[in-house]
Amino acid sequence: MISDWTLWLEWFIKALVVTLALLTGFAYLTWYERRALARIQTRIGPNRAGPQGLLQPIADAVKLIFKEELTPGKADRIIFFWAPIITLVPSIIMAAIIPWGTSFTAFGRTITLYVADINVGVLYLMSIASIAVYGIVLAGWSSSKYAMLGGLRSSAQMISYELSLGLSFATSIILANSMRLLDIIDAQKSLWFVVVQPVGALIFWIATLAEVNRAPFDMPEAEQELTAGYHSEYSGMKFALFFMAEYQKMIVICAIAATLYFGGFLGPFVDKYPLLGPVYLFIKVVVLLFAMIWVRATWPRIRYDRLMSFGWKIMLPLSLAIIFITATGIVLQDVFNNDLYFWAIPVVSTLAGLFTVAIVYRELRRKAYERA
Amino acid sequence: MSVLDPVVELIRGLITSGKMIFEKPVTFQYPEEKREVRPRFRGRHVLKRYDNGLEKCIGCSLCAAACPADAIFVEASENTDEKRFSPGERYASTYEINMLRCIYCGYCEDACPTEAIVLGDNYELSFFDRRSAIYTKETLLEPVRTENMLTPQKVEPKVYTRSVPEMKDPQD
Question: Which residues in chain B (25-54) have CB-CB distances under 8 A to chain A?
Fold first, then answer.
């Protein structure tokens, strides 16, 4: 029974580490985003609180905690209270199955560097990511009519892009021949999936941006023109929970992107020193997060009808085509035992991507012609 | 225009904003690092002195008359050779500017016959209550370089009879 007890302790400690890492990661992601955005706009960004502004997140947290919390008079109080929590929890528990290393030996036992190892890990990710939509819908539904419109807007967006997201999950499942995240990472030992399926990675990235409500798809919280959306009635700590959920989702989804397409914790010498795994994963997540911030600093917000038609008319067919190409390539490689078919996957899918771009171009030209 | 434009333009945008990271930030770290104001900047008023320490202000109240915001209040008193504040007959015994009313138009500067009041380069005007928004003569008056130049001064009689200095060649 002793081993049982230590197993529980190990799980508890690992879960605690992941949760705390996400919570501090959220705080410092806000700092990182503000500094990076500022540099892109040739500003300096927050650098007053503490060295290089590193205490800024703490100041922000204190401010949010002490802010007055308002509940609209006609709000559904119970749902209004639970909605931020329903949004926050999935963003944390999603991180549970992301492996940040293999395993190492300490205290005479093997300690694995992941909280849970689920053999249908990708399905788990998909389902948990979908639960987050409930929080947003309920938040909008329980507060006021404007928030309701915002909630509907964002849930429609998230559901639309979830299809492409799921299909690009499927691409790497096909490539790895497994749903277990550890197997997916193992399959990328020789080659990252982003090389095999660059278009799939791109679709994943775009769908991700829409899924976590980041620019240029940040309609749900378009502060400037749409007055925040689903969380317009929230203030104080409840608002902070939404804020937290969003940034944690950013971190988690970047970790998932790293796992599915950029080799996860893999890197030089990671076989010999498994503790290097978390370091590599961290570096990859930081780089991917920078890409998100870079996109936010550059591209304008997309119009809502275009967002929808882009999701349904371009992303969805393209990701279906990508899956088809990937699956066909894998099958043909097996049947004819010829690696040429495997290498046809990136080539053909790039061609498919270019074809899609050409269609978009044609559509834009037609629209411009009609306007003239 | 080429077929790849939808993507090329997006990437060009990314490159443009990515380049800016390597540019020097334009931010001034304000309290530590202050930007020089422009030569014609109109900041807080300063009451000037002559080289010998006498105040230029003769208490004529022309600035108060010119002030569109009615921010200036001047009260004049008589000068004597025993206790001389400024050349001529009178000096400003009270000189107050309400900084909450002042609009920094600079009309007082234009109206002054002795160029006593000048809008300086100090823009850091903050106060906690309305009373301290009224700047008195002590605050506004230019500090003196040496102790013996403080006003009132005891001067030779019949020297400082003219209140407005003689303009030799008015250039400006």
Answer: 25-27, 29
Determine the topology of domain B45-149 in CATH: Alpha-Beta Plaits (3.30.70)
Position A276 scores a pLDDT of 84
Nearest to A299 among B10, B20, B29 (CB): B10
> Over the stretch B73-90, which tens digit does the pLDDT of each residue have?
999 999 888 889 999 889
B135: which residues sit within 8 A by CB, 6+ positions away? B44, B45, B96, B97, B98, B99
Give the pLDDT confidence of A284-316 residue by residue, as tens digits.
Answer: 999 999 999 999 889 888 888 888 888 898 899
Which residue is listed with tokens 């920078």? Answer: A290
C-alpha to C-alpha distance for A170 and A184, rounded to whole angstroms? 11
Contacts of A306 in chain B (CB under 8 A): none
Residue A187 scores a pLDDT above 70: yes
Whether B14 sits inside 8 A of A42 (CB atoms) is no
Chain A residues lying within 8 Å of B7, measured CB to CB: 357
Per-residue model confidence as pLDDT tens digits over B110-133 = 999 988 999 988 888 888 999 999
Burial (CB < 10 A; 0-12, 13-18, 19+), residue B136, is exposed
Cross-chain residue pair A40–B10, CB shorter than 8 Å: no
A259, A283, A296, A261 alpha-carbon torsion, rounded to 10° = -20
Q: Which residues contact A199 (CB under 8 A, 6 or more apart)?
A: A318, A322, A349, A350, A352, A353
Residue among B6, B14, B20 minimizing CB distance to A364: B6
**pLDDT tens-digit profile of B143-152?**
888 877 787 8
Residue in B20, B22, B30 to test binding to A, most A beta-carbons within 10 Å: B20
Identity of the residue in B4, B21, B29 whose CB atom sits nearest the CB atom of A40: B21
Tokens 């540099």 belong to A39
| CA pair distance A8, A6, nearest whole angstrom | 5
Q: Could you state, in order of their start, the residue ranges of all structural domains in chain A?
A: 2-371
CB-based contact (8 Å) between B15 and chain A? no
Burial class from Cβ neighbours inside 10 Å (0-12, 13-18, 19+) for residue B108 reads buried
Whether B21 has its CB under 8 Å from any CB of chain A: the answer is: yes
Q: What's CA A14's distance to the chain center, in Å?
A: 21
Predicted confidence band at A102 (pLDDT cuts at 50, 70, 90)? confident
